[in-house]
Design goal:
Helices cover 78% and strands 0% of the residues. The chain has 20 helices and no strands. It is globular and about 75 Å long.
Length: 502
Amino acid sequence: MTETERTTGRGLQSPDPTRWWGLVVIALAQLMVVLDATIVNIALPSAQADLGMTNGNRQWVITAYTLAFGGLLLLGGRIADLVGRKRTFIIGLVGFAAASALGGAAGSPGMLFGARALQGVFAAVLSPSALSLLTTTFTDPRERGKAFGIYGAMAGGGSAIGLLAGGVLTEYLSWRWCLYVNVPIAVIAVIGAMTFLHDREGHHESRLDVPGVLLGCGGLVALVYGFSEAEPKGWTDPLVLGLFAAAVVLLSTFVWWQTRAPKPLLPLHIIKDRNRAGCFLTMGLATIGMFALFLFLTYYMQGILHYSPVKTGLAFLPMTAAIIIGSTQISARLLHHVAPRTLMVPGMLLASLGLLLLTGLNVEGEYATHVLPGMLLTGLGMGLTFMPVFATATAGVAPQDSGVTSATVNTAQQVGGSIGTALLNTIATTATTTYVASHLRDPAQKAQVTAEGVVHGYTVAIWWAVGIMLLAGVVAGLMVTAKAPKHHVPQETETDLGVMPH
């Protein structure tokens, strides 16, 4: 599509000349939010010793962040639509930096938990604004592919980068720097946002759906909290069952209310659209599998191969590189030529194959032969999948709904991560216990049998992850029927270019 075609007939200016610098700012902010889900994992033992946390409550360093982030994303997306994406983006960055500084200075476990929850609140404001700014800034299908390729690489690779950064900062500085590091990143992003990002005013005629916020956010918090508590307490614990029951009731009521609300928090036509629903489901399922990989390989390399935190982080770098290549060099180049599912389905098959190779892990395993090939294939598959998911889920959305649509993609990713961590960790622990009980005959061999049992638990859980990844491929193949973006430029132009920020 030529510049002339883009401007004639609609009185629109040419694309924003600073849009690529804007993309750098958006990608930096997204990287900060994603890596914060994992950067603290490696620092957790040091923080626990320093602040005197118990084993029972240390998980709140992780859970407080994922709970607030996953639970409030829909609200954050709607706020972005109401008050304007750029403004919400900057508020999110400033708040995130302040919460990070507070967490870094924490003198007690409670203060650290509170700071992590605050980080999650501001991440829930920041993330949907970032994705919807990207959606409204890049409207030419070819450019959009490149932009979403970079965004997808950040979404997929940020977790692995977080593991490396967490290892380096904890080993050479202090666990506190895993939080302080966000302050300079956020400052740079705020300056960049003020300079390079442009946006229309918010849609002030919209009102906030307060019952929808209470029901939707309450239901998501109960769901994420239920999965996080299922890991330490077990699936039949009364608290866990109560949380799941509350989640079902609240989310069912939320859906019912959205059909009647005058200004719904999540307009149901967004999730009724077959392509979008397929993308949300694919994202959720793929993230379950990906979190399993990070979780078990981190444990395997530190516990079985005896890697240091920094070496563990470095070992994930090839996977990050594979995600970036899959997203920016393959998906981004092909998306405007092929239908999204022709990237998503092979992506999920590649990721399944990578996980399948990892079911061969054993106590005498070597990184180069047992870990690396599976990592590379899974990373490449994730890169192929994430980028078309983001691009397809947010394509052609009405301007006033772009924030909440972006939030729904992020919610699928967050909830998928929470489910993946709890579900697969529980499966692994149960398999380990069963293995040790049936194989331990000589007490002198307890250490060896326990190590074998732990690795057996990982491989059983990874088998489940293989099945979940394959299911994601089936969902993408059956539900995502959108054609290549170049085939429907005119109607996409009508919807998206109407909000082209200048």
